[in-house]
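Per reviewer request, we include the raw input and output of the structure prediction for the construct analysed in the revised manuscript.
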Amino acid sequence: MQDIDLYDLPELLDSNHRLLGLDPGSKTIGMAVSDRDYKVASPIGTILRSKFKADAAKLKEICEERNIGALVMGLPVNMDGTEGPRCQSVRTLAENLHKIAGFTIPIVFWDERLSTSAVERFLIGEADMTRKRRSEVVDKAAAAYILQGALDALQRRSDR
């Protein structure tokens, strides 16, 4: 699978497509969707991970229902910029979505360093959520944080 640059996405998408942001973890996959103007990311849910084929089928269904033109996957890069085993796991997931599950839409990676901790700090400090409630929303909120970062980068590029 060839890496696609985030900044090449607008040329690959139709005007009615949306982006699906993913925060893939070992137990869940947080999801967020963009608006059609690629300005706002909204959390939409979490997939509790099971077998790959079942997870891929759920993702494919969501992509079809929401007219998704590309996936933006959070890439958990180490603080020093290197890629460790968690990055390899995300890259393998993306590769398997193409090779095994037959996904044909582009998949781009977005550096998600500190996304989950930033979301948790917000949920604790600003939203004053209980631990139980935070655990219910943190993955999809992290996906929205990741996708919003990518959308903001696209917007900055188009404003030049």
